[in-house]
Structure formats: C-alpha cells, structure tokens
Amino acid sequence: MPLIASAGNMLIPFKTDSYNKLLMNNDEAFLMVMWSLDCPPCIKELNMLGLLYKKNPNLNLVLVSTDSVSRSSEISGFLKESGLSNLNSWIFSDESGQKLRYSIDPRWYGELPRSYFHNDEGKSRCSVSGLLETDEILAWLNINLDS
Amino acid sequence: MKTLLLISYLFITIATPGISHATHGDSGGGAASTQNSDACRNVNQLPELDCASAPDSVFADNGRLWTVWSYAGHVYVNYSDDKGRSYSKAVTVNLTAEKISARGENRPKIALNNKGGIYISWTTPLEKRFSGNVRFSYSNNNGRSFSEPVTVNDNLDITGHRFDALTVADNGNIYLAWLDKRDKLKAIKEGKKYTGAAVYYAMSDDGGKSFHANKKIIDNSCECCRVVIDTDNRDLPVIFWRNIYGKNTRDHALVNFDSANKAAEPVRISYDNWQVDACPHHGPDMSLTQSGNMHLVWFNNAEKKHGLFYKRLNKDNSSSETFSFGNYNATASHPNVLSAGNRVWLSWKEFDGKQETAWVQSSDNNGNTWSDAKIIASTLNGSDYPFLLSDKKTVYLQWKTTQEGFQMLVVDKSKER
After folding, report:
1. Most exposed of A105, A115, A144, B237 (fewest Cβ within 10 Å)?
2. Fold of the domain spanning A9-146
3. Residue B358 phi, psi dihedral angles, 5° rounding
4. Where are the domains of chain A?
5. A128 in contact with chain B, both atoms CB, cutoff 8 A
6. Torsions phi, psi of A83, nearest 5?
C-alpha cells in the first residue's frame, strides 16, 4: 500500500500567536472548528465535515484539535478516516490549554465542538458551540462565495 | 522556625518509616513539576506525585492526607502526615499496567471509611473510541497493598463505562456511579436513536469483595462531564450530574436513595436551559452536611444564564435562591464546594489572559450570604482543577500546577468547627 504523504498530513502546533497569524494570512472567509478525540459530537461533526468537504472542496476549513500532542498519530489516523487529511490541521501545542483557548476567544469555556465562522477576510466572526448542521455551513458558504 | 521544622521532620521519619523526602510547596513556592522529567521516566524507581496530572486527595480522621494519582499505566497511592509537604513512598494499586483516564474531568478517585479501609476507582479506556471500564481496588491493611483490581460494570460490551465516581458510607457500604453507554449501544444496534449516556451505579456491602448487580438511575445524561457522589447522613448515596433534558438542554439532576440499593426519582436542579449538542467537559460538585442540607455548584453557558452557580437543597426539599459566583469575563470555571456545619466554601479558577488564579469564597450561614471572593494562589503555565478538602481543623485547596507542582494551599484555619 503506497504511503500518501502531503503537507496536509502534518499536524501544525497551535500556539498562542497562531490564531492571529491565521487571521492575517487568510484573505478569504474560513471556518475554524475546534475539536477533540474525547468528544463524541466532535467525531460526528468531523465525519460530516469530511463528506461536506468532499462535495465542496472550496470549503476553507481550519481544524484545531485540543488534544495533547502525544495523541498526534491517533488524530492523524482519524483525520484520514474521515477524509480530512488533505487539510492543514492544527493541534494544541504544549502551552497551557487555558492560554490557547483565551488566544482565540476569552469567552470560550472549552466546550467542544466549538466553531468560528470568519467572514470578510477574518474581520468579523460568529461563534457556535455544539454540532453544526450541514445546511448551516452550506448557507454560510453560499453567502461567502457570492460576495 | 528551624527547630520547629526539624522536630516535624523527625516526627515524620519516626512515624512513617519509608517516607520519601520529596517536598511540595504549600504557598505557591514549592518544587517545580517533574512531570515528564527523568525522575518520572526511570522505570527502576517509583514515580513521585509530581509526575501525575490529575490527583485526588482525602483526609483521614487522624489527619493523614491520602492521595491517589496515576502515571504510565499504574495507579499509585501515598500519604502525607504534614499536610502535603512530604509524602510516603507510593504504593502501586494495579500491578499489571493498563490505560488510565487521568485528565480534566477524569481522574482516579480515593475514598476512606472510618475503619481504615482505603478504596480506589478509575476508568480504563478500551481500544474503541469512547469505550472504557470502571475499575475498583481496596486496601484493608492501611495502604500497604491493594486488592487485585476488578471491573465494576457488569456489562462488558466494548462501549462507554466511564467517568466513575466513588464514595463509602459510614456503615461501610461502597457506591460507584458512572456514565454508561450499554443502552445506547443496544439502541444503535436496533436502529434507534439514543441521546447521551445513562447514569448507572453499583453497591458493595461486603467491603468491596463483591458488588450487587449494576442498576440504572436514568437514561440520557450528558456524556462527557464528571459525575459526583457522596453519602448522606442516612448512609445513603446522593448522585449529581449534568443531564440532557428534551432534545439537547444540558441542565443538572440529582438523585437521593430510598434505601441502600434503591434510588428515588431523580430531580432537576438547574433550569439554565443551555441548549447545545456539545461536550462541555465541565461537571458539577456537591457537599452534603450532617444536618441533611446539600450544597451544589455547577457551570452552565446558556446565552441568558451563564457562569458558575450555587444552590442549597434543604432537608425539607425546599431550596435556596441560586447564587452566581466567579467572574464570567475571566473564564471562571470548574467549581468545587465544601461544607462543615453552617460554613460553606466555594472554589474555582479564573484566567485573565496572563495568569490562572484559584479563588475561594465562603459563607458562615449555610450559604445565605457570602464573603468577598479571594485569590488563594496564581500560576503562569497551566493548572489542574482546584479541589477543597478539610482535616476538620483547616480547609485546604489542592491545586496541581505545571510550574509549582502539587500543592495543598491553606484556605481557612481561623475557626474551630
């Protein structure tokens, strides 16, 4: 079985300055989803996102796992299973989880999945706690493709 | 001061042969965490408490502090006779290594009875995602050795039996409660929908040698928040957890027992209406008094009602107003509660963007009015949840931080109770 290696298979360490860099480097709308292997609805959500991404490769998706770095291979395995291994995926670095969460959103208490819809080149965002609906993402995608 | 330290050191050495000299700060200035350091990795020597990420502690009636923790596939127990400054050598509970859940909402638990019995539980995750078994072991020889661990859930499907909670009543009965997905698995096999998990419990009336058949308290609990259990003044358990009401409303429920192995109907405690299909990873806490009151704390994040909350359930089933505490804008989280007589203490942690702080607020009148909140300690690089505990004279806060290591911080020693 051939080994498929691409930049997307690598988990990028998410640090306290990563979110700002993401905002600066993304000149189009993007959906950032925070998730964990310890969260059953997250697994459901990523499976759904995998299917959605297959049908809509223009979906600008940023995945951030809040698991510890020691679970990297498990995470990569799951991303591959759910058809999301071609994306650039992030994993919380060894910095304090509290600091990392705060760097994204001081109002986020760690509930998962937690999603941020970024519109207008990251100038505005909308946060959602809990499982997203496919229709909700498609609606957002349509608005942002039109504009 | 030096003399005093020397005397206490000698006392410890004499009183507890085999004690190790690992020290832990009690005011934020203690030894740095050795987690992942060479001391933890040396397979030829026992790891120390600072190697652990999620410890649980309890004081015995004689003032001895017992702590359970895990590292690299083993659960360990050790004790301190100087309120956490130095600890005995660790004793291994499970001689055969297994996976142990020990992070955030999950950690091994310790409970003592008044006859010297030491009881330990933990969750061992299995291969399949979100699956696990509830494990139990006990010592009847003051912690010198522990029984061969047993699996308490009597359903052995590869599914979730996790988030264990443990208590032992004064009459010796042992209770474990946990979140169980056997019914979810069955429903899925039958093509039915099942939201969340179920709360199950098991009871032992022979000191942990055997358990009665598992019994279900309720279907459709939240599936990733800690469950808490304690025994009341009738030696019966009380269980408190985050439940799912309706489609996805994550509020809290509590159950009392009618008799030793018969639960009453669960009652809904919070009405914050947090509607979310998510894992809050943020369970409640509870402290029961001898007089029959129950002090309850929880976190919710509904748009209209969010933050940390306290409520007292009285023995006549009436309840106090809900009291909101902590600074929501500084991510006040992971509440804990302790009570003694009419006194009640609340603890939680906050983060202001730079440092994490452990807070305490107390009441002298059963939770009717509260003191100002005060900071007990702060840290810069991450921390475990704070936990309140008492040796009947002094109230302490157990707070394990990355930088300072395991700490037993003095919260309140001003009043005899």
Report:
1. A105
2. Glutaredoxin (3.40.30)
3. -100, 125
4. 9-146
5. no
6. 75, 25
